[in-house]
Amino acid sequence: MLKITNLHATVADTPILKGLNLEINAGEVHAIMGPNGSGKSTLAAVLAGRDGYEVTAGSIEYLGRDLLALAVEERARAGVFLAFQYPVEIPGVSNMEFLRASLEAVRSHRGEPNLSAVEFMKLARATSAQLQLDPEFLKRGVNEGFSGGEKKRNEILQMLLLQPNLAILDETDSGLDIDALQVVADGVNALRSPERAIIMVTHYQRLLDYVVPDQVHVLADGRILRSGGRELALELEAKGYGWLRDDAA
Amino acid sequence: MTTMKRSERIEVFARTARTRSENFPADTGVLGRLRAAGRAAFSAAELPNPKTEAWKYSRIGPLLEQGLLDRAPAGAAATARPIPGLDVQSIAILDGIPQPLPTFTPGVSVTSFAALSGAEAAAVETHLGRLAAVSERPFVALNAALLEDGLLIQVAPGVDVALPIELLLAQSDGAAPRGVHPRVLVIVGQGARATLIERHLGAAMAFTNSVVEVVLADGAQLDHLRLALDAGRGRWLSALDVELGRAARYHLWQAQLGAAFRRNEIRIRLAGEGAEVTVSGAGLTRNNAHLDNQLCLEHRVPRGTSTQVFRNIAGETSRGILNGRIHIHRGAQKTDAQLHTKSLLLSSRAEIDVKPELEIYADDVKCAHGATLGQLDANALFYLRSRGLDETAARTLLSFAFLAEVVDGFPVDAVREALRPALAQAFAAPAEEDAP
Ligand SMILES: Nc1ncnc2c1ncn2[C@@H]1O[C@H](COP(=O)(O)OP(=O)(O)OP(=O)(O)O)[C@@H](O)[C@H]1O
Ligand SMILES: [Mg+2]
Q1: What string of DSSP letters covers B174-211?
Q2: Contacts of residue A70 in chain B, CB cutoff 8 Å?
Q3: Is B423 on the interface with A (CB under 8 A)?
Q4: ipTM value of the model?
């Protein structure tokens, strides 16, 4: 589904990603861990197509297409979804109106009929309930005044509505209480299917107890330093990242 | 014609206006006297030139074009465009001519200047041209010199008028250029309360030079909505002069799109103690449209409050202007006057000029103003696009959000609901190539 080859990317002329390779097949869940500032969110931003992130070498193939050639919204419509590490507050735009516009854009691209206002409301309410998010949140401005955990749940709400092929969750587990982590994990597991792939960026192996990954990667200094199974996360939890660097050196 | 020098064009304009004014039949009634006074004042006045401070950002060129002093052809009609779901008692002034009046709810009376009698004549005698004096502004004089007729709208003392009064200043559907001069005097009696929805309709090449005077007696309240949602080739110059008596309340809500020329000259005079004014304005200009709001709040007596909030958006090569003057007279102690504006530029070639002017001659007052100028938030744009919205849709949604703070406060539900699609349409209008 996703094939990243020798990816180099700079931010404000500073090289951040330095030859990253990663391949993910449909049906798989991959976890990416790594030290602060190692480039995890940069990778997520490059995948989503954020301005200011310049790819200087390498390629990204998504469902057989050149992902980098697509505009931000085209990627979203083609099924790429990024759950932001820091979801953006947009006062004055109601969450409901935003979700509806988003769902319409994505569905119409897929050739699916638009939902009626009533159908949409039903779906949005049911999905909120699934995430134990009070439906009142639908009426508020997008993320406006939401707590950290509420913002993260709102990201998952969007993910479940949009049903992406490739979901990239950038530290969606950070800032969640234990119950919320379970709720969010259930949401992610609900999305899991043979046609979809999920990338979870996380600092904590606890998430991986709930959403068991097929592979775990360590991203350090702009590269995948090590890949392994579920047990790699436990090892990292016990030993930190230092030993990997020493190993690599 | 277009090769004429500016001074010649002004000369032709002034001469044409005088001739047209002289062509009205002699009349010793209200109309005749107003026209005579207007004609004299206009002849003596000098039209604004590039050095006229109040016209610094609005050049009169678009008003001088050929045909803009022509009388509208007779028998014209306009397509009705009611606001969906809005119940009103409606008054139409079409091409400057008051149309047949409906019956009104108890306490509301509307009379054309040509048909005044008794107490109404006396009221008009007292107030007409008092707030909008012909001697002060040449286009107010021109309105007086060239008006076909005018309307007196009165709300009787103590009456709470539930059904909004709609005032349509409309262009007929015809394509011929023309100049029209609507004139309205609104008097809200002591302790009375009403809602006035003034709509400026039409996008044709016509000059609408309106003058509306509003007198609020002690304790009166008027919610005044002013909607100008037709962009296009119209030239709209609107003088609005308001006076508040003791403890009167005046709430003005404006939602306007730019046009070839649109300028509002709004003067609000707090003449009775404890009067309260709020002004909320939402403005959007696209392409090469022009929207100029000139406001002057005059606190003449103590304990008045005024709060003005504006949101303006300019795209492409359009221009928005907001001049907010607050004049606190000597002795107007305990005045609280606020002016807050936020402007948003959607293009590097758009322009918004905001100028607060404070003149304060009392020492125990609160007066605050704030102006910010911004651009759409890049993070918010990215967030929306990352959810599948295309750039135009994302920009529109964010621009809406910017105006929402003002528009969501409009007091009439049906108007608020009608504003959304109207603004959406304005945002969705294609960007045009630059006009030559
Ligand atoms: N706009 C920018 N200008 C300069 N440097 C930047 C910019 N954005 C990110 N960086 C730098 O890029 C590096 C990688 O940042 P990134 O956000 O990808 O790290 P991360 O792995 O997600 O870290 P964390 O675990 O803390 O979220 C950091 O050193 C960061 O300071
Ligand atoms: Mg990060």
Answers
A1: --S-EEE--EEEEEE-TT-EEEEEEEEE--SSEEEEEE
A2: none
A3: no
A4: 0.96
